[in-house]
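User: Hello! I'm new to structural biology and keep hearing that structure can be predicted from sequence alone. Could you demonstrate with Cytochrome P450? Please show me the input and the output so I can see what each looks like.

Assistant: Of course. The first part below is the input, the amino acid sequence of Cytochrome P450. The second part is the output, the predicted structure written as tokens.
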Amino acid sequence: MTEMHATADDREPKTDANSDAGSTRSTVVTPPPGPHGLPLVDSTLAFARAPLEFLASMREYGDVARYEAFGREFVVVSDPGLVEEVTVGRDDEFWRGEFEHEFSELLDVEGLFFAEGERWRQQRLLLQNAFTPARIESYADDMVEETVRLVENWSDGEVVAVREAMSTLTLRALTRTLFDLEFGDGRADRVRRWVDAMGAYSDNEFFGTRAVLPTWLPSRAKREYRRATTDIASLVEDLVAERRRSDAEGDDLLSVLATGEYPDGSRPTAEEITDQLQLFLLAGHETTATALTYACWLLAAADAEDVRSRLEREVDSVCGDRDPTFADLPDLAVTEAVGREAMRLYPPLPFLQREPHEETALAGYRIGSGTTVQLNMYGIHRDERWWSEPDAFRPDRWLADDENGRFVVADPDDRPEYAYFPFGGGSRHCIGMRFAMTELTLSLATLARRVDLERVTESIDPTPKVSLDPGPVKMRVRRR
Ligand code: HEM
């Protein structure tokens, strides 16, 4: 292992005499501190082998730290105020950046997530019609029904692969709500094969020893991913053709795309429709499935008995002998707190990336153009400066009593807003945030009413892939 040490000198940004001491954009003469003098390949391999641990190790150099890997410069930001500055206050100075776009090209995924400038704005304004509060409310029953359908197929004592089960659930809920389509097992399997192949391929290219090899080298993972991508493109074409053949004039996402107009009066091209559908098939189910998997896993810990019984008491008293509905959400505070706490410990997208349009400064350090700024969400969510017992699963940290003695979700501790940002922030925050929180809470409540899940897999190994992949998670079903 290569040693990386900060010197006291490294930690102090040097600004010139004319700089404005209160601004983090002050004139700067130093780059951020970081591991100096390492051959490029060392940081690349260290990041590739264990990205979360590598980003955590950069805290040694301070809240803004620099390293080089993959032939480019990175700056890791581990301070909530600076995350807010980059994503909200100064978001016009930053874009997703070349590194993210290389990833998008490699994986051949485009759409809203990767669009920039005016094109992005037009797309976001059109697509957000499918995510209004009224639309989300109209999706809630389908989310619950899909969860019931999943659980009803489980028998008492059966061991289930939770990660796969949750992605089938969220995929079916997504296609039923946003595409107004029933997705049979065959189609759900095709999407899962695509996501798995994407995970294997990105893992292969970015993590492990291949990270230092040229990406044009052939590999089995690449061939399999290409095959899966061709298959998913043809699935998406079928979906659009089916919608156009039916006279449905819904306001679901598929209809908005197939029949809607951008605010500037133009219409999505065939290619844009395909890109968006592909992106939403991925972004709309994978992250929520990940959050649900970690929530189930954390709830089943031996020392989480109190949390489990509090959750069950809440669900039983709110729902009685029926399944939860959208109207129950304000009363499902413990359930929501479980979902929030799971995403604090295991944020599905554990770091976000930005690049300045031109050279700028942050916290008094120079950020060169072409530098990838990594917002260290995983590290900030577990930082002892903002969280007591940061590694402990404690949903109660999100709960307070209201004046009637009822639990409400609150963040009572005095901490910076961006100490918790699982859905990002600013104009590029997650468009599906409300959708995801509704699904997470209602699905967890529906599961808690019907089953307990016991751990069969003893330990997990969270690794950033398409999202923060826990690896295999087998659990035994106990019907309540
Ligand atoms: C627990 C579930 C989810 C989590 C944790 C999550 C997280 C995020 C985060 C952190 C971002 C911002 C990325 C950045 O700023 O670089 C984002 C963006 C996005 N998310 Fe989500 N997401 C979730 C669910 C969903 C759902 C359900 C959908 C769609 C139905 C969705 C669609 C998108 C899209 C399209 C973007 C890009 C928005 C833009 O750039 O304008 N996400 N998500």
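User: So the tokens describe the shape?

Assistant: Right, they're a compact way of writing down the 3D structure. Reading them back into a model, for example: Residues 1-22 have pLDDT under 50 and may be disordered.
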